[in-house]
Write a structure and sequence with these properties.
Elements (H helix, E strand, L loop, with lengths): L2 H29 L23 E7 L2 E10 L8 E5 L10 H9 L3 E5 L16 H14 L5 E6 L1 H12 L4 E7 L16 H9 L3 H9 L10 H11 L4 H17 L13 E6 L13 H4 L5 H11 L4 E5 L6 H4 L1 H14 L2
Parallel strand pairs: 3-4, 3-5, 5-6, 6-7, 7-8
Antiparallel strand pairs: 1-2, 2-4
Helix pairs in contact: 3-4, 5-8, 6-7
Length: about 350
């Protein structure tokens, strides 16, 4: 076989493979729902089902009336302990459903709020801070007449959990940080963004682009995770979506402006780190050059460094797991949580 013919055959094989994978990708895209004809969801998620009854706490923030949604799941056989679950930026408290069910079955009272600006709670157009969210959470605990609690925070909720534990250490029995954001310095690596630019990017999202974003959290995509795409897509169909996009941009700024790295050595409550080893989440990734972002988001290293920085902390590494262990390996997550809580007694 002459050299020219061999090159042509190799080129043809390459084109056929490219065509195959392109066709497979198109087929996958065609099979994914667009939600174009779905029922719109308002920013308060009124028609979105939550796994347990939702209650509302009304109060004022900076003179504005707001409503804070929460689930308060009481066990049939209480063990006298309470967990407070803190959600990530792109989720409401409904994604804690496996933990709400499992931990209440083990006798824990479990409280899962939607922070102001998220889920079914009010979404005022204002400057958001972790201090404000921590104060709102303390207000909710006062309303429920709860004293000391174990705080569990995932992603952005992990950052809030650290701020809460630093501000109210007397109220925290123990702290569980599940793939928290903020374990590295974003400010020195990610350029600051103007809020109007963030809003434009939010408005330009599509269900397909949002699905790709959510996929980055999970090494293995499961059909159950499509619910997060559906929720976003239906909110986007609402006339309230521009306000939703603005509040999303404002809470982005909160994360950027509310670092926890220097707070970790000052934590003085028992702390468990649960770290999915396949997680490579980088907050604000799109705004920095690839060469800057490339070494970031290495959660195996970030978790071990955080353990060294948090006095007396315990680290549990979940192999093959991404950003949300309580959804990816719920049984193990709950077993580790219980071992940590009871192991300290």
């Amino acid at each position: 076989m002459n050299t020219l013919r061999l090159k042509l055959l190799r080129r043809l094989g390459t084109l056929l493979l490219a065509g195959f994978f392109s066709g497979a990708l198109c087929a996958q895209t065609l099979n994914e729902p667009s939600y174009a004809q779905a029922e719109p969801l308002g920013t308060a998620m009124e028609n979105w089902p939550y796994p347990y009854p939702v209650q509302m706490l009304q109060f004022e923030v900076e003179g504005r009336p707001v409503r804070m949604a929460y689930m308060d799941v009481k066990p049939q056989n209480p063990n006298g302990q309470t967990l407070v679950l803190m959600h990530g930026k792109n989720f409401g408290s409904d994604y804690w459903q496996p933990t709400l069910q499992a931990m209440s079955n083990f006798g824990f009272r479990v409280v899962a709020p939607d922070q102001i600006g998220f889920g079914k709670s009010s979404k005022p157009e204002m400057r958001y801070t972790f201090g404000m969210l921590a104060e709102n959470t303390a207000r909710l605990l006062d309303h429920l007449k709860l004293g000391r609690v174990t705080v569990v925070g995932n992603s952005m909720g992990g950052m809030l959990a650290v701020h809460f534990a630093r501000r109210y250490p007397e109220r925290v029995v123990a702290l569980v940080l599940e793939n928290p954001l903020g374990l590295e310095d974003y400010v020195s690596a990610i350029p600051p963004q103007q809020t109007p630019n963030l809003v434009r990017l939010e408005m330009a999202q599509t269900p397909a682009s949002y699905r790709n974003f959510v996929r980055s959290y999970f090494p293995v995509w499961k059909p159950a995770y499509e619910t997060f795409v559906e929720q976003f897509a239906r909110v986007q169909l609402s006339g309230d979506y521009p306000r939703f996009a603005l509040v999303s941009a404002l809470t982005y700024q909160m994360i950027y402006e509310g670092p926890i790295l220097n707070e970790l050595p000052r934590l003085n409550v028992p702390t468990l780190l649960v770290i999915g080893q396949s997680d490579r989440t980088v907050f604000g990734r799109r705004f920095a050059p690839p060469e800057v972002v490339r070494p970031m988001g290495n959660f195996p290293v970030l978790g071990r460094t955080a353990q060294m920085n948090i006095p007396g902390s315990v680290l549990k590494e979940f192999q093959g797991v991404g950003h949300i262990p309580h959804l990816e390996q719920p049984e193990r997550f709950h077993a580790v949580l219980i071992d940590f809580i009871y192991g300290r007694k």
